[in-house]
Amino acid sequence: MSGWLGRTIPWIFVGLFLLFVLAFLVAPTAVLIVQTFIGDKGFTLSYFTGLWDYQYRVAFENSLILGVASAITGLIGGFLLAYASLQPGAPSILRTIVTSFSAVAANFAGVPLAFAFISTLGSLGFVTIMLKHLGINIYGMGFSLYSLTGMTITFAYFQIPLMLIIITPAIQGLRAQWREASDGLGATSWQYWRLVGLPILTPSLLGGFLLLFGSAFSAYATPYALTDGNIALVTIDISNVLSGNVMSDPQVGAALSTGMILIMAVVLVIYSLVSRYAARWRR
């Protein structure tokens, strides 16, 4: 295909993509910002400053704790599992099983995931009952599935496999010659990973952390189904103020959403700075 038609068709698809981004990303964000700072009497900061109220401050704190804790759990677990399965001496069947399971588990979330863990580790879950018969009462020891700790464990079910999928290509990109040169110079395994391996993997690890953090920070269905909304999270508070029977305040919901966007923007800026530093180190 040549001529003006061949030059026009790619721009049609680019235009459709830009239109999609404008309709489903830029426009909703602009509406949220307008609702946050424009009230019935014009410009106002009352909705945004209201985020410092105790109720919403606790919700942001809990969401940040859940996002960071689950992202760290997924990052460490996924990295170690990927590294173990990619070892030269590891059976190929193990790598196939781990990869296949991860592809399925990484997409298992929402209400089904919450129900699965309630049936397993809930107060009447079969693992909880089995441990109780063995004389181990995990709920008597202070554990609760319906808490931030319980949600972190629940999120780890799909975040560890997701991290494995993300980091596997990066680990495979580490050249064997780098490790051989490191060993030849007398470096220990720790020195190799501290000075060579981890700096090279930093952008991939940070990108994976950002993805895991974002998925946990913005999660709604799993926490709500798991705790019935009894733990304050930003997403649950947004749902309450937008569709709650007791209180309906779209401006507060917009302010909460804007706060989430600002937090994710800060995380993206940090990711960009670290990625640039890692790129200079590799050069």
From TrEMBL:
Keywords: Cell membrane, Membrane, Transmembrane, Transmembrane helix, Transport. Residues 60-279 form the ABC transmembrane type-1 domain. It is a multi-pass membrane protein. Signal peptide: none annotated. One of its GO terms (biological process) is transmembrane transport. The chain crosses the membrane at residues 12-38, 64-86, 98-131, 143-171, 192-217, 252-274. One of its GO terms (cellular component) is plasma membrane. It is found in: Cell membrane. PANTHER family: INNER MEMBRANE ABC TRANSPORTER PERMEASE PROTEIN YDCU-RELATED, INNER MEMBRANE ABC TRANSPORTER PERMEASE PROTEIN YDCU-RELATED-RELATED. Belongs to the binding-protein-dependent transport system permease family. CysTW subfamily. This is ABC transporter permease subunit. It comes from Acidisoma cellulosilyticum.
